[in-house]
Design a protein that fits this description.
Distance between the termini: 53 Å
Order of helices and strands: HEEEEHEEHH
Oligomer: single chain
Number of strands: 6
Helix content: 55-70%
Strand content: 5-15%
Radius of gyration: 23 Å
Shape: elongated
Largest sheet: 4 strands, antiparallel
Mean pLDDT: 89
Number of helices: 4
């Protein structure tokens, strides 16, 4: 019985992980508003090692369309500017000698549709992950049944796993609807 509870808890944790991964992925999909996460994939050559931008500069968002980057060392202005260009995020950084200013252009209708497709693909990946966790849990439950756990207990456990799966897939759908609305809002 304890083993069955453990399997259910393990499945819940794994499904939670899939939803958390989706939320993190959604942060990288920009929705028109400037945010420091947009530069999360930028790595700068800092004295020979690739370092995340956030570790060598202060990244701020003074308004919805602007990102400012103030390096801790002035000598890093050029390498940061270069790294942003290399990251190919569609931004055109401007260096004023003290900080780098990025104007976030408004999204075109076509770009919005592409981002919605990207969000849907991420959501589908999360659902597949959740279903795989369900399959793994059900396989473990079947093993427990072969090892002598009663059929009724296993049946209840499988129903619990299915309810968990349904609730986590519903969460993914809710996140997707929210992200779609955020992307399509002009």
């Amino acid at each position: 019985m304890e083993e069955i509870d453990f399997i259910i808890d393990e499945a819940r944790e794994a499904m939670n992980g899939s939803v958390a991964h989706l939320e993190k992925s959604f942060l990288n999909i920009r929705a028109g508003k400037a945010s420091p996460q947009m530069l999360g994939s930028v790595f700068v050559d800092y004295y020979g090692s690739q370092t995340p931008l956030s570790q060598i500069a202060n990244v701020n968002v003074p308004d919805a369309r602007t990102i400012t980057i103030q390096p801790y060392e002035k000598s890093m202005l050029q390498p940061i500017e270069k790294a942003i260009m290399i990251a190919n995020l569609g931004f055109n950084p401007m260096n004023n000698g003290d900080l780098i200013i990025i104007s976030v252009p408004p999204l075109t209708e076509e770009r919005r549709r592409d981002l919605v497709k990207q969000a849907k693909a991420e959501a589908e990946e999360a659902k597949i992950g959740i279903r795989n966790h369900r399959k793994d849990a059900n396989t473990d439950i079947k093993k427990q049944e072969k090892e002598g756990v009663s059929e009724d207990v296993c049946k209840v456990a499988e129903e619990t796993i299915q309810k968990l799966t349904d609730s986590f897939i519903k969460k993914v759908e809710e996140h997707l609807v929210q992200k779609e609305a955020e992307i399509m809002k002009v």
